[in-house]
Amino acid sequence: MISAGASVEETGTRFRVWAPRAQRVEVVFTRSDLEPVALAAEPNGYFSGVSNHARVGEGYRYRLDGAESFPDPWSRFQPEGPHGPSMVVDPSAYAWHDADWRGLDPSKQIFYELHIGAFTKAGTYAAAAEKLELLRDLGITAIELMPINEFGGTRGWGYDGVDWFAPYHHYGSPDDLRQFVDRAHQLGLGVILDVVYNHLGADGNYLPKFSNEYFTDRHANDWGQTINYYCEPVRRCAIDNAAYWIAEFHFDGLRLDAVQSIHDPDYPRLLADLVAAARAAAGSRRIVICAEDYLQRADLVRPIDAGGAGLDYVWNDDFHHVARVALTGNRGGYFRKYRGTAQELLSALRRGFLFQGQLDAWRGEPRGTPTRHVNPACFIACTQNHDQVANTLNGQRLRTLTTPARARAMAAVLLLGPHTPLVFMGQEFDASTPFTYFADYTGQVAADLWQGRRRELKQFEQYTGENAQAAIPDPSAPETFERAKLHAGEQSGKGPTWQLYRDLISLRRNDPALARSSTLATEGAVLEPRTFVLRWFDDEHGDRLLLVNLGDQLDRTSIAESLLAPPAGRNWRLVWSSDEPRYGGLGVVAPLTDEGWFIAAEASSFFVADS
């Protein structure tokens, strides 16, 4: 049970709110025949009381000091948006069907990042639930939902939410969200939720009406006021929220957005407490928790009893950035510190972060911490995600920025590597739809947002020109959102790229060595500046070899690299190639013959050591 909000009890509904700015707090109801309920003051600025007449579905607000009334900061649902009344919700009324669901093994996941509003034409939980079998058939194991807590307007990314506990009403009711998670579990899919504890949006943020202590000016924040985690009730609100999504909606974990902007005076205590509360709320279910962290702190994934935060994963932006440079040759903006070489890709595969304490010229100071002894599976790697696709001129997906052959070759690196892979929605079928930043603002706020988006993209040199700036879509225009929606025909077509992703995921999950790659020793070697080999050593099932060439064709009678030598008494057998015609390739030429190695241009090949 959360420590505040409206809680349904046998004799009525209990209301509790933290409002230290107020001397007097009443619950007022939208139903005219319900009398207001005066709440009794508690220590530390809390007020609470019980209404014997407020039913499930009742609309209410809190009236402060007999003056204005505001929605509940701990509201479980805002059916009319963040400015409307809160609604009494009974979280126990939904009949779950996932009693046998045991949760997620952190070493065996393939994540799929999904925006509910853009995943289907209808943009609802119910419509998204109807598409889940496609993800199951692809081989995805867990869905990562972009934020779904309440925010202003009819569309948006969700990172400017204002009501942490209220699922966004335009996507459906709280029980619609429960049904989405329930359906996923019945299909063998986990669901984790992207949560934002580093700032709140401006539209509908009524927290300052209740307390001056929700925010602080101690730290700068790129997205608004910084949340004040020096204050214990504010810390409790975040911890309660993490446990709430796990307990009341059966989510299988959380993705913590931009934790570098969560300023904890006792770091990493807040994150560790949040993780512990979420795991306790899950009971016997195994949940997973990951973080986005620009500072690249490895202690986030170290155990709590060893001084870490106890997370399962941390996003590895370095992998994405070097992969993008390798595929496109574009080194503008924050990509300029990467070369896209085989060595960088190998280092990201084997060691996670590329920046582990050395100077980051883009930041102007050292960045990252050492990752020695961190399991490679703790790093979530991607070649596309919501931010990186949107940080192009028109939300171009990778398919338009590189050659098809290179994209196929890099898909093998993403989906077979020792890290934990993440696929961005539509990537698996080369979606033709762009994905840019979208929101729902009007007037000067919308104009300022558009101008701010143009300034942000100026960090990339090619987007500074007058024509490029004029081409940047208006985030608040309805058509910007509509263009981002996946096309149903493409989504269900199961074309060449879908076959490629399905086969790679199947290989990762079913090959006995790859299935436990997080426990195997791996080594890699550079053969050419754009060519490398990654080898898994498995005495039980035979070694595995991934050969990746993002450059021109190589013909070698011999290659002086020991990793290419098969184990004694065994031979390499080719089991997969990105050049297969069914993926759109030109055809596979035997890569290893008595005359030496033939390494096709812009291709990846996977080998098993057979006796």
Question: What is the average per-residue confidence, as pLDDT, rounded to a whole number?
Answer: 95
Overall CATH class of the largest domain = Alpha Beta
Question: What general form does the structure show?
Answer: elongated
The level of helicity is: 10-25%
Structural class, from secondary structure content?
alpha/beta
Q: What is the CATH topology assignment of the largest domain?
A: TIM Barrel
With strands numbered from the N-terminus, the spatial order across the biggest sheet is 10-11-14-17-18-19-22-23
Total separate domains:
3
Distance between the termini: 58 Å
Q: Nearest-angstrom radius of gyration?
A: 26 Å
Largest sheet: 8 strands, parallel, barrel
Query: What is the tally of beta strands?
Result: 31
* Unreliable stretches covering 5 or more consecutive residues: none
The CATH architecture term of the largest domain is: Alpha-Beta Barrel
Separate helix tally:
16
Beta-sheet strand percentage? Answer: 15-25%
The CATH superfamily of the largest domain is identified as: Glycosidases
Task: Report on this structure.
The chain is α/β, with parallel strands linked by helices. The strands form eight sheets. It has an eight-stranded parallel beta barrel with strand order 10-11-14-17-18-19-22-23, surrounded by four helices. Helix 6 packs parallel to helix 7, helix 8 (317-328) runs antiparallel to helix 9 and helix 11 (404-416) runs parallel beside helix 16 (496-510). The protein is elongated, with a radius of gyration of 26 Å. The mean pLDDT is 95.
